[in-house]
Design brief:
The protein is of the alpha/beta class. It has a single domain, classed as 3-Layer(aba) Sandwich (Rossmann fold). It has eight helices and seven strands. Helix 4 runs parallel beside helix 5. The chain starts with 10 loop residues before the first strand and ends in a 12-residue tail after the last strand. 44% of the residues are buried. The structure holds nicotinamide-adenine-dinucleotide.
């Protein structure tokens, strides 16, 4: 991705920018010259990444709030406009995967509602308030984080999560079609399993790890940085003819039927 074009004079809003994929993306966007508004409900995580960008000589701001709250999202977009005068990149990435989300018969209703609220309504609200700002700024790029489970069923059920990500995928396609002639591109980023402390803990037992790795042709988890590289591509003009895609960054999972040992 070394040939990536500069994002100088671009403004990006990153939801869930305080941790994981969002955090790595904030750092890379800022390195490429973008000014970044980090939207997160976790103040400590959000502040830390903003400080890191500033320490590296970049410009970033924290918008503290909840992506499932209409007023919070509206105010984060307004903050991007008031700090920088524009919005060009909207990365709707915040998401949750609670333990209690399981099979359709066992997932508590309040857990279903919470997941749909954050993962699906949160992306909708980002688009609802972000699209007018992108149009005002002469167009831009929307990247919505879905997941590989939006494309293939997972054997270990997380029904609300899977349904929410399927919704993100189809919503993104429709937005891409609707705004294609107005200078807005929209793509759904579909990560495979990313190496996070949580997943590392789940896979600490060798048998559990081997069971999971069998489904990943590359035989390893993704690094959050590898997802951030894909977001940078989708955010920049390098992907100027790319819209409406189900952008897989999954180590080959969704292409595999059986993976050779
Ligand atoms: P993470 O938990 O490391 O980071 C998520 C961030 O979002 C956190 O900073 C959290 O505070 C913030 N957040 C959560 N709910 C919020 C809300 N309601 N309002 C504002 N901020 C909120 O997660 P991650 O692994 O970086 O995941 C990022 C995205 O990638 C999610 O949408 C997730 O579903 C998706 N994804 C992750 C994986 C994986 O293996 N980690 C795989 C596929 C898809």
């Amino acid at each position: 991705m070394a040939a990536q074009r500069s994002l100088n004079e671009k403004t990006a809003l990153v939801t869930g920018g305080g941790s994981g994929i969002g955090r790595e993306t904030v750092l890379k966007l800022a390195d490429a010259g973008a000014e970044v508004v980090v939207f997160d409900r976790d103040e400590a995580g959000g502040r830390a990444v903003v400080k890191e960008v500033q320490a590296n000589g970049g410009r970033a701001w924290l918008a503290l709030g909840d992506v499932s709250n209409d007023a919070d999202v509206k105010s984060a977009v307004a903050q991007a406009l008031s700090e920088t005068g524009a919005l060009h990149v909207l990365f709707n990435n915040a998401g949750i995967f609670p333990d209690a989300d399981g099979s359709p018969t066992q997932t508590p209703l309040d857990v279903w509602e919470q997941v749909i609220d954050v993962n699906l309504k949160g992306v909708f609200l980002g688009c609802r308030h972000g699209i007018p700002a992108l149009l005002e700024s002469g167009g831009g790029s929307i990247i919505n984080t879905a997941s590989f489970v939006a494309v293939v069923g997972a054997a270990t059920s997380q029904i609300a999560y899977t349904a929410s990500k399927g919704g993100v995928l189809s919503m993104t396609r429709e937005i891409a079609v609707e705004y294609a002639r107005q200078g807005i591109r929209a793509n759904a980023l579909c990560p495979g399993p990313v190496r996070t402390p949580l997943l590392e803990e789940l896979l600490s037992e060798p048998e559990a790890r081997a069971r999971r790795m069998v489904h990943i042709p590359m035989g390893r988890l993704a690094e959050a940085e590898e997802l951030a590289d894909a977001v940078l591509y989708l955010a920049s003009d390098d992907s100027s003819y790319v819209t409406g895609t189900t952008f897989m960054v999954d180590g080959g999972i969704t292409s595999a039927y059986v993976t050779p040992e």
